[in-house]
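Q: Structure tokens for this one, please.
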Amino acid sequence: MSIIRGIIGLIVIGLIALLLSKDRKNARIKQVGILLVIMFVLAFVGLRTSFGIAILEGVSGLFNWLILQANGGTEFVFGEGATNYGIFFLNVLMPIVFISGLIGILQYINVLPFIAKYLGKGINKVTGMGENESYIAIIMAMLGQSNGFITIKRYIDKFSPEQIFTFALMGLSCVSATTIASYMQMVDGKFVVVAILLNVFAAFVIVSLMTPYNPQALQVDFNPIEEAKENEGIEEENFFSVLSDYISSGFQIALAIAGSLIGFTALITFLNSLASLVFGIDFVTILGYVFSPLAYIMGVPSTDIVSAGSIMASKLLTNEFVALGEVQAVAGQVTEKTMAMMSTYVISFSNIATVGMIIASVKIMSAKQAKVVANNTWRLIIASVLVSMISATIVGFFF
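A: Here is the predicted structure, written as tokens:
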């Protein structure tokens, strides 16, 4: 029955996207079919084959190893054994500083632009979604939405409104490589990796329905590797300056996440107490009931739809770390299927605040393109929720 609901859910998600489409007549239905097949294959290989499981375990093991290396720096500053106490800031957020430094090195020596360029070409060959779009999908997953846009800043005014919508949706649907290890500290690493892969193709699905266009006719010619050099101001003598900037940015990100978690968690605690006093039911549970129809459509077991709904609502209103905390809180109380689906659902930057960050980032580079993003704010928010729903629904088929 849940599989039938999952199929119906994918259809309903598609219909919602079509309802919000600016060009329903030219919706790329065939393209959607191809993308969904790719997603099912990726999910099956990753979750149900020994080969795929071994690869995902290997990736998770790599990030766990990186966490151990990061602990060396954390314990030097906070004391030997500081990471043994399970303190969230030290164990989950501090590794972001180290990972950010690694990202800076890989960006400096042009490894990331090289990977993004040629992996993007490969994705374009398979999906036909355009080299620009495929490059942005990969670079957003590596650097996050703000730095992802910076890599195309000199050409940003040359992109069409449809492409800017696609790029912004990728920024909402992807995550930054700097935070992947932190996510894996909170949920099973295989779902983090699967979510990152599926979200790219799910975003293309939504674009094909909500903003259909012929990407091959709108491509802008630029060299990502040369752009990386230009944007970073890379010269031999400023390697340590670049590295220092990335490390500092990593620490700022960790502090920003810590601050948002303190604020959002305290706010939710306050709203829970207030709602319990007034209505006799906490705020998170109320949100769970509001979002439970979406969870039901996705194929979440009926007994878990309120719990899943509250996680989905928290993800939208706060951020992925708050939602990850809620996923951890329901572990053992919900089915394996629900855990798999929600662990996948929360891995993205899909929330209201991120749209504001994208608008601010783009505005620095182009007021015209920032207006395009701003005019599509609610379409982007809904689109990003649909992306997460598609990925989680497909994962649900294998549990």
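A few notes: The radius of gyration is 20 Å. The chain has a mean pLDDT of 88.
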